[in-house]
Amino acid sequence: MKIQEYLKHHKIITDGAFGTYYAERYGTQEMPELANKNQPERVEKIHRAYIDAGAKLIRTNTFASNTVLLSAGMEDVKANIRAAAELAKKAASESEREIYVAGDIGPIPMDGGTDAETQYYEIARTFMEEGIDILTFETFSDMEHILPAIRRIKKDRDLFVMVQFSVNQFGYSNAGLSAGKHPLHESCPVRFQRIGLVLGMGDEII
Question: How many C-beta neighbours within 10 Å does residue 188 have?
């Protein structure tokens, strides 16, 4: 069943933070994305732990899989994403329940020489080539670079796209956008299936 149909009749439980869990479980501060190829068994165990805890949707271990944070070329980034996708799909396939897999995309730090729009598109296309048709753009502060990329990828295939924005205790993102007046509304030229907010200050102020 496609996730669009599932959500018409059910709420969905997703996994939690991958990097935080990875650091606590393995006592390390290394980037968890490096484990996709170096220590894949660690990544699989975390996916399975979330599934065993009741997650219906898991996200690939790719939040920081981009050329800036991995300090790598695009082909190496794509190889990292492909490895992560295979690990998530393997964990999902081993469950007795139907588990959805979403390609996780985090913000690319702007270093002055990075074409973020093109890179988001290439990352999304890599997930699509791996058979993943759900994308999560996680903890963004604005839409400047992701909206054109999403528009491009939706011309290739009508993927299920979720966008999460990070806001502070006052309801504003780092880019100064208000959660109450965010540009993700009916006039937006791209249709998003799910929109969410992430409280960047932690839950103690809720």
Answer: 13
Residue 186 has pLDDT above 60, yes or no: no
- Check residue 161 and give left, alpha or beta (phi > 0: left; psi -120 to 50: alpha): beta
* 100-105: strand order across its sheet: 57-59, 100-105, 134-140, 160-167, 194-199
What percent of the chain is modeled with pLDDT above 70?
80
Beta bridge partners of 111: none
Helices (H), 27-73: 35-38, 40-52
**pLDDT score of 185 more than 50:** no
Q: In angstroms, what CA-CA distances link 6 with 12, 57, 104?
A: 8, 11, 20
- Residue-by-residue DSSP string for 72-125: --HHHHHHHHHHHHHHHHHHHHTSSS--EEEEEEPPPP--SS--HHHHHHHHHH
pLDDT digits (tens, 9 = 90+) for 46-56: 999 999 999 99
The CA distance from 128 to 36, in Å, is 18
Per DSSP, the three-state class of 198 is strand
pLDDT tens for each residue of 22-51: 999 999 999 999 999 999 999 999 999 999
| Amino acid letter for position 143 | M
Distance CA 122, CA 78 (A): 8
